[in-house]
Amino acid sequence: MSVQGPRQIPRTFKSEPKFIKEVGRKKKPTLSLDTATKRFRDVVPKQKGAKTEDKLARDVVKSHEDLVKMTAVEESYRSPPPLPPVPTDPHPTLVSVEDVQERLLDCTVAAHAAGKRITEAGKLGRVVQDIADAFMARKADLIHHTPSSKAPSLASPGTETTTRPLTLLSPNAIPLTQTLTNLHKSVCALTYQLHYYKTHTLPLPGTKKRKLFLLYIDMCEAWRDLMIQLTLSIAQNSSDAASSATGNVAKLAVATGAPDWQDLTIDDAQKLFLQGDKYLLGFGVIRSYDIAFKRYMAAAKFGLPEAINMLGLMFEHGLGRPKDMAAAIKWYQQSANKAHPESLTNMARIHETGKGVPTDPKTAYELYLLAAEAGHLDAMCSLGNLLETGSGCTKNAAEAVRWYRVAAEQDCPRAQNALGSAYYRGIGVAKDYGEAVVWYRRAAECGDPNAHNNLGICYEEGLGVAKDVVMAKTLYKLAAEARHSSGVNNLGYLCMTENNFMEAIRLFHLALSLGSIDAAYNLGILYETGCRDGEGAILNPDWEMASRYYKEAADKNSIKAQLRLANLLTTAPPPLQSYSKAVHYLTIAATSTQEGNPEAQNMLGEMVELGLGTAESGPDHATAAKWYRRAMRQGHARATFNLAALFEAGVGVGRDVEKALRLYEEAELRGSPHARERIQALKDLGLVHPYG
Fold it and tell me: In CATH, which superfamily holds the domain spanning 578-692?
């Protein structure tokens, strides 16, 4: 489980949102004092030291008026689709203490899951509607509970005792109804907002997303109030049998966050774990990493692997405890020994990255495989990546794609994006831009910023879809909102092509701060060439600044930056000019892969042929021919022409005019602008037999 703090949104609602209709001005019927007094006498027995009947009756009148007002608010509230009517069962099910506790924990988990999905900006209409229905059913149970009902005692199974149900006249009925109503309103508001996006394929705009976060905060506040009131009600109901309800009080303590460990059993481990999640995420309570750690530790004592894994996570990220990778690995390993998929994945990640242990791709591969076979989606993605690159295992792109597909078909955004990239690049499958777009779009619907960026590239270049720069810009903006470095850089590049240089420079600097290598390269271009708008120069050419940005990208293995920097170092005036540094960066680019970069190989050959930047004195035609040959094998036109010239002159290689002619003709076919001139010259001089 990964932990990420919620985005803090200031409360700015000074009035109800526009989509909540105001309560009508029509007055609702009120409860008279006499009627209230009679009702109170019929229901509440005389108690020593109690308030006067008139005072209690006035409280009942006020409570009744509050309920009428809340009912009016609720009746005036409309949200599509309509909520089901409250059931009017004349014999409703009793709400026992244990039932309230279990329902509360279940609903907390459900609301937590909904909140996580809200932050992912997915399609939540149906999910939130289901939760709203569940809240309404719960409210009906509480309201229709009658004081004359009998309920099984939680302390003595098989016996019956009179309980104090949550009636409209009980001390906590009004606060409970209030908080349930508030919660209902928040969920309805969420449903209303999300209703318009059910069929949309892309995430929400920023303003709508902010409204959803505000509504979700309302929902969390109502939950916190509800938990307080339910806890009080549970405690009151338990007090009727307090002398023999030790076990139930212990379980109640789990729900209220103050467990007495010695009274707990292994059945409470899962509830302790859920309490840890609640305090870790700050859901319904004030966030407390310390309390969360204690809950996880208590659950871990029962051997719950999920709790053991969370202890490792808290040590790894320093949540409530100082960062301690040794302790994190210890807990992860304990949970992994129980075959817990999340812990297996965490241990694999640690071995893959070498965080706290020596890097071991083979062990990482084996652990990812175990977790993937257990159904862990993120492990499937990481396993596919290792298979694709051949790290720790035999390279097998087809097997990588198989794992991507298994996870992608289970709606894993990371896997969907990876599968789209496989189709885009033709890795493990036949290249198919249309299929790539399909998977990129599915991942983008789930809010994946990598997919936003990749889908934007497809729209910008017209690959798999009709070219649409506006759509590309929209997708890049979505990626940029998630602080995706490539998305920010690509958005800046579009601004640069639109001559919006000020915005482009701002975005490039932001992307650079997020780790984008391409952003450093693009800033180098702007400083090398300068940029102007209609009012004058925005940036004057500054080759020294350009070289700094090129070097920053080149030192991070950007081949295009290495080429650009080498070209700048050979053409710039002293003191910036440096042939030796140019040769250094060209050599890195020329040998970056097994084949190497052909442009760098050709440039390096030209430098060596002229004797520029080499330690040895004078030109080295043989070495130049070697670099030209490597570039020529990759179809480089200029390298083919240069090699032909060496054969024509017989320097560095044996003179062979016939071979030179064939190479000139090949260079011409590859687009060399000067090859035709040399072919004609050789034929005119009669050095070769004319043919073709």
Answer: Tetratricopeptide repeat domain (1.25.40.10)
Select from 217, 299, 312, 222 the least CA-distant residue to 265.
Answer: 299
Q: Which residue has the tokens 């862990």?
A: 376
User: Span 207-236, mean pLDDT?
Assistant: 55
More confident residue, 94 or 322: 322
The H or E element containing residue 558 is: none
The amino acid at residue 222 is A
Token output for 502: 């000020």
Cα separation, 273 vs 313, whole angstroms: 14
CB of 183 closer than 8 Å to CB of 226? yes
Distance CA 520, CA 383 (A): 31
Question: Which CATH superfamily includes the segment(s) 77-153+161-241?
Answer: Nucleotidyltransferases  domain 2 (1.20.120.330)
With tokens 């007094």, the residue in question is: 37
Which tokens go with 479? 């990626």
The pLDDT assigned to 592 comes to 87
Greater confidence (174 vs 210) lies with 210
Structure confidence at residue 209 (pLDDT): 58
The alpha helices in 318-376, defined as continuous H runs, are: 325-336, 341-353, 361-373
Question: What pLDDT, on the 0 to 100 scale, is given for residue 179?
Answer: 54
Residue with token string 């009727």? 240
Q: Which residue has the tokens 């070289």?
A: 547
The answer, yes or no, to whether the previous bond of 575 is cis (omega within 30 of 0) is: yes
Please tell me the total number of residues recorded for the chain in this structure.
Answer: 692
CA-to-CA dists, residue 323 to 312, 313, 326, 333, angstroms: 10, 10, 9, 17
pLDDT tens across 468-485, in order? Answer: 999 999 999 999 999 999
Q: How many helices (H) and strands (E) does the chain have?
A: 30, 4
φ/ψ (deg, to 5) at 532: -135, 155
Greatest mean pLDDT among 9-13, 182-186, 553-557 lies in: 553-557
Residue 635 is classified by DSSP as T
Q: Do residues 124 and 117 make contact, with C-beta atoms less than 8 angstroms apart?
A: yes
Average pLDDT, the chain: 74
- Residue-wise pLDDT for 350-396, tens only, equals 999 999 999 999 999 999 999 999 999 999 999 999 999 999 999 99
Domain ranges, ordered by start, for the chain: 77-153+161-241, 578-692
Q: Please, are residues 500 and 473 in contact by the beta-carbon 8 Å criterion?
A: no
DSSP 54-105: HHHHHHHHHHHHHHHHHHHHHHH---SSPPPPPP--SSPPP--HHHHHHHHH
